[in-house]
Amino acid sequence: MLSLDPKDLPTGKLHSYLLGAIAPRPIAFASTIDKDGNPNLSPFSFFNVFGANPPMMIFSPARSVRGNKTKHTLDNVEETREVVINVVNYDMVQQMSLSSTMYPKGVNEFEKAGLTMLASDKVKPFRVAESPVQFECKVTDIIYTGTEGGAGNLIVCEVVKLHVNENVIAEDGSIDQHKIDLVARAGGSYYSRARDGFFEIPKPISTLGIGVDQIPEKIRNSTVLTGNNLGMLGNVEQLPNEEAVNNFGKEHPEYISLSIEKRHTFAQDYLQKNDVESAWKVLLIK
Predict the structure, then answer these.
(1) Which residues does residue 134 pair with via DSSP β-bridges, in sequence order?
(2) For the chain, N or C: smaller number of CB within 10 Å?
(3) What is the pLDDT of residues 174-214, one digit of tens each?
(4) Which GO terms describe its molecular function (predicted)?
């Protein structure tokens, strides 16, 4: 294990470690306007949502690592206290990347990136028409974390209006994660297309799982089952009853005479198919 003290690392190297390890990160495609009415558009991956009542978001246009300059986005927000956060999907990812170019102040990144300015309802900055979801925000606070290159500037903002493209709405009224086709930022030049990597895990909050500590020791100490496997097994509310296990054994007599390792391997196969109940039955057959 490589153990490092941040104070011993050059800022650029530390920045690389942080962005490579904390990934993928959602992208705040931030539209602002200066006091003279000049629009600006730039993406930031130091970003997330932090509340729903009130709806709060935070993003950070950090000071540049090399030149220790502030971003135009920060300057504009300080002047107007307004911003539109547009989400980025795969259809616009190249244009978003182009807009991150360090153009001189006053240059309109909407025009440079070929994106459409759409008037907002409650704030002055424009929305990105191509973005599937746009959040009009009022800035409630700016937290400055330092004055050296790489220091963050946390812009805390409250959503005062949101706009959602009907094309990304699912039948139940929620946002369809496949239709919205979001992208996220990783380290270096890497991005992640979210819908290509989706998988489902039942939320523990919806059930009271027995926990890994309640799994029989011979299963818990398996040389085959992984930590993720044990997590799935521990997320059940109760084990299959004896009758269900016996019936399963009658249907699959081939499992009964197997070694512990072989039985654990078959259980792992069921877990990979999200069939946790069958996995438990394999493990509990006597």
Answers:
(1) 86, 163
(2) N
(3) 999 999 999 999 998 999 999 998 877 766 656 688 888 89
(4) FMN binding; oxidoreductase activity, acting on the CH-NH group of donors, NAD or NADP as acceptor
Q: Give, in order, the Cα–Cα distances in Å from 140 to each of 71, 79, 155, 192, 200.
A: 19, 13, 8, 31, 35
DSSP 153-192: EEEEEEEEEEEE-GGGB-TTSSB-HHHH-BEEE-STT-EE
Quick one: pLDDT at residue 174? 95
Average pLDDT over residues 70-97: 95
* Dihedral (CA of 98, 101, 104, 106) sign: positive
pLDDT higher than threshold 90 for residue 168? yes
Instruction: Show the tokens assigned to 227.
Output: 């930590």
Rounded Cα–Cα distance for residues 96 and 100 (Å): 7
Tell the burial category of 283 from Cβ atoms under 10 Å away from its Cβ (0-12, 13-18, 19+).
buried
What are the structural domains, with CATH classification, of the chain? 6-193 (2.30.110.10), 212-284 (no CATH)
Q: How many CB atoms lie within 10 A of CB 250?
A: 9
CA triple 216-220-225, angle to 5 deg:
130
Q: Count the alpha carbons within 13 Å of 260 in the hemisphere toward its beta carbon.
A: 9
Q: How far, in Å, CA of 142 to CA of 60, rounded?
A: 9
Residue 176 CA to its chain's centroid (Å): 15
Contact 44, 73 (CB under 8 A): yes
